[in-house]
Each structure stands twice: as C-alpha cells, then as structure tokens.
C-alpha cells in the first residue's frame, strides 16, 4: 500500500500539503488496515482540498530475522519516502505497532517533518501501564512530542491527553466506512434462519464467550435465532464452546468476508452484536449502522459513543451474558422496534461518520499543522 507523493501544485501555484500515512502494509487485515483503505478511497477528496496523501506500509515481525528485515528494509524505504512529505501521520496501536512507529517517528523528527500520532487501540492505557519504565518513557515522548495527536474516539483522546503535558490537546477523528455508507439495504425478505451478526477477530477481547452464552439464553427464552460470526480466529475453540451449550446447529462461522458477500451478511442480519471487553471505535458496528442494522454493544471505549443507547440499539456492561441476551431478545422479537432502531442507526452513521465529515477533520488537522486556514 504505497503511493509516492510528488511536488504537484494547484493551478494557483500553491503547493499541496503532502502527507505520508504510516501503517500496516498492503494485504494485512485489522482496524488500522481498514482505516488506511478508507483513506485511500478518499484520495480525490483530499486532492480537492490541496492535500496529497501517500502510504508507507510497515511489516510486523515475530522473529529476530523479521525484526532485522524491518530495520534494514523498512527503515531504508522510509528514509527515501519521508523526504517527499510535509507531514508524517503515524497510525498506532500497541506492542509491535507502537515500537515500529516509534523508531520511524524519531527519523521523521530528525528530518524535521511534522508528526501526527493517531491512536487506534482501545487497550493502549493498559499497554502503557503494564510496560516497563523505558516503554512508558517512550510512550510519553512519542505522544508528547507529536505535533498533533489524534484518537478515533473521545475515549482514546482522554488516554492521549495524559501524555501530552502541555503539548496541546488531542483531537477526535473518527473512522468511516465508505462502502457501507454507499450501500443500500434492499428488501431481501426474511432469511430462512434469522441471525445475529458479529464481525471481528474471534478472540477473548471481543467477548465471544459471552456472546455464545447470551445466544443460549435468547434461545431458551423462546427465540429461534442463529449467530453468524465473520472474521478470523480460533474457530475450533468457539465451536467447542457452542457444542457444549448444544448450540452447534445455531452458531456459524463465515470467515473473513469481503465485497458482495460481506454486504449480504449485513443486509440480511436481524441485528448486529459487538460485546467487546475494550474497543477503540468499532468499525464493524459502524458498518452495520450504515446498513440500517440495530447494534447491541458493550459500554466500553468508542462503542459507548457510537451507539445511542435505546435509540440505535442497546449498550450493556461487558461480560454480562444475561443483559446481552435481554437486549438481543428485545430487538429480535419486535419488528417495529428493529425497524425504528435500524433507521435511527443509519441516520446517525451518515450524520456523524460520513466520509465527507471525516475527511474534513483530517483536512483541518493538516492545515493547522502547516499554518493554513
């Protein structure tokens, strides 16, 4: 995912602001990769605002050999590309993502480039607290020395501001979901087997055990609904969990979805559920909202801001299977409520998280950094 910036100028002769986005390399999956894909799709909108964006993909490593490749290959490429940028925008999570961007940010600073620290992790505060003293110092320096700090939600901004120490408050630039925003939810009719949709990493962090437990409660309350989970992870573990609750015929694993298959997954869903233990934003929940699907989520991180409790869906506490089941059962069993919440979800997504509004926040950030109004 790399497009080299040039010194292109506007017809008036004013040189564009050149921004180099640093994040996961081409073909990788996850929240940051999705955000970079959305930014790439909006290149023309940025160009219309006199901003030229380019992308630099880093590579994760689990072995010493891979780390050496990062040092010699990624760093060498970055030294070449950084000179073509006015601003270097680092998209950061925790652990390896943080350490890779930390090194590259020092290079950007030495090259006198303006730096943006953009936090995408809902667990970054725990990462910083549990790390050793050297890492805590590195976090404070990286976040505190950035020319601008950005979080995908107010929850992330609160974490960042603890490290800014007079360097200026962080700002929120939320995520968007262009493909979902432009989609329609056609009248497909009721699927043969109504289902609750989940999309994301099949991990403890996403509350998968609680979700399956809640499904058992919903079906014991007289409901007859499936759970379809889209995403990568330890499917064997969760299949065993479902079988232990006699739900092996109710829980389906769809794998990683893209294109029209992903669209239909959302379009036919009765409701969407994301019971995460922590979450910086919740792009999958936003996608569901754009499709007009009510969302049941946990009251954590960015999800607590994304879902309007009682209007576009329901919020419950994490790890509370009984509360999750009640919320899902209420929506699944009431078509009028489901339609009302779905419409409100779509309207909220378009109003607050549409691509035009999100691009405008990026543009405002960049113009302030280079002193243009």
TrEMBL record:
<keyword id="KW-0808">Transferase</keyword>
<dbReference type="Pfam" id="PF00534">
    <property type="entry name" value="Glycos_transf_1"/>
</dbReference>
<dbReference type="InterPro" id="IPR050194">
    <property type="entry name" value="Glycosyltransferase_grp1"/>
</dbReference>
<dbReference type="InterPro" id="IPR001296">
    <property type="entry name" value="Glyco_trans_1"/>
</dbReference>
<dbReference type="GO" id="GO:0016757">
    <property type="term" value="F:glycosyltransferase activity"/>
</dbReference>
<protein>
    <submittedName>
        <fullName>Glycosyl transferase family 1</fullName>
    </submittedName>
</protein>
<feature type="domain" description="Glycosyl transferase family 1">
    <location>
        <begin position="189"/>
        <end position="348"/>
    </location>
</feature>
């Amino acid at each position: 995912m790399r497009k080299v910036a040039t010194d292109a100028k506007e017809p008036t002769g004013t040189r564009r602001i050149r921004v180099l986005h640093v994040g996961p390399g081409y073909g990788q999956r996850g929240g940051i990769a999705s955000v970079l894909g959305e930014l790439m799709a909006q290149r023309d909108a940025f160009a219309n605002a006199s901003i030229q964006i380019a992308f630099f993909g880093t590579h994760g490593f689990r072995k010493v050999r891979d780390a050496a490749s990062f040092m010699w290959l990624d760093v060498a490429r970055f030294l070449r590309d950084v000179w073509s940028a006015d601003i270097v925008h680092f998209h950061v999570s925790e652990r390896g993502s943080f350490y890779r961007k930390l090194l590259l940010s020092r290079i950007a600073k030495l090259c006198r480039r303006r730096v943006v620290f953009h936090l995408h992790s809902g667990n970054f505060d725990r990462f910083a607290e549990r790390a050793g003293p050297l890492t805590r110092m590195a976090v404070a320096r990286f976040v505190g020395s950035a020319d601008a700090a950005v979080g995908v939600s107010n929850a992330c901004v609160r974490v960042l501001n603890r490290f800014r120490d007079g360097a200026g408050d962080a700002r929120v630039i939320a995520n968007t979901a262009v493909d979902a925003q432009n989609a329609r939810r056609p009248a497909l009719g009721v699927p043969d087997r109504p289902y609750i949709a989940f999309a994301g990493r099949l991990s403890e962090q996403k509350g998968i055990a609680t979700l399956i437990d809640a499904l058992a409660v919903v079906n014991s309350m007289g409901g007859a609904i499936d759970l379809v989970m889209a995403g990568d992870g330890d499917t064997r573990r969760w299949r065993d969990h479902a079988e232990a609750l006699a739900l092996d015929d109710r829980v389906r694993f769809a794998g990683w979805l893209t294109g029209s298959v992903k669209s239909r997954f959302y379009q036919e869903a009765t409701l969407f559920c994301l019971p995460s233990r922590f979450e910086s934003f919740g792009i999958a929940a936003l996608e569901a909202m754009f499709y007009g699907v009510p969302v049941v989520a946990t009251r954590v991180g960015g999800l607590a801001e994304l879902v309007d409790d009682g209007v576009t869906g329901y919020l419950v506490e994490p790890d509370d299977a009984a509360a999750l089941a009640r919320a899902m059962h209420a929506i699944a069993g009431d078509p009028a409520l489901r339609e009302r919440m779905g419409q409100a979800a779509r309207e909220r997504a378009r109003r607050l998280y549409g691509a035009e509004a999100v691009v405008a926040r990026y543009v405002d950030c960049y113009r302030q950094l280079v002193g243009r109004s």
